[in-house]
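Marked as duplicate of an earlier ticket. Keeping the data here for the record.
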Amino acid sequence: MERNLGLAGATVTVLGSVLFIVAAFLPISMRVFPETSPAKKLESIEAALGQWQAAQVLFGAGAVVTVLGIALYAMSLRREAFAPLVWTSVALLALAVVPWLWQVVARAADPERFAQGRSPTWAYLASFLVTEAGLAALGMALLSSPLPAWLGWALIVYVALLAVLTLVFRDMPPFAFYLATLVVGVVLLFRSGASSA
């Protein structure tokens, strides 16, 4: 059962990460997020409002599904000494999802407010920093796991760099977090598949 939970956790983590990354690279996202002019930003959103709202659904779903995947992985580790660190990661990532969901719902419901930059930046910043803490905890847990040590170290170094950039620029493209969870999920998927063969 624990092996099945590990495989399910890896699969769900990959799925959630892919959903988020797809949302980030949809044409509407690629037009809106780099745009500096509020008027042009709003014009792009209003010209493709359905796509914009669908992207926000994917952003929210991707974040939630990824956390569920890591929680399933944590459930597969009941007998492992590093399980509490994975659960710490799950708790932090779940906490970070709350302000993130608030933001994506607000972006979908009131695109004008978003385009004009009137959304509270503290919610984004809180979500980003807590996500980084959760991923760092996951990286530390992976160092004690049977997975290759490079995975844990790479995650820790990557997240430390993201945290510095977040504090310096007070922003972060959040798909960067889901590139990390995608790599972790793929490695877990291959390891779970190999151990069940």
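See parent ticket for discussion. The longest helix spans residues 49-75.
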